[in-house]
Amino acid sequence: MATSKTRKRRSDDLRAEYEFGALAGGVRGKYLRRASDGTNLVLLDPDVARTFRDSRSVNEALRLLANLARGSARAGR
Length: 77
Hints:
Elements: H1 32-36, H2 46-51, H3 55-75
């Protein structure tokens, strides 16, 4: 376990050789839309995560549920 003597806080973690002038013109979020296209992040509750260990099993279960829902919607007409 680290003691307070061995843990030193550095006030500045940046190296002296960084040239911030070369970073001018950066655009915040430039690639956000491209990175998020086609992705959907969902946080599973712990009990659900124990049942579905990977994205493949979640997708299979959701496809089955979607097919069942479509089938019951047609039957109810």
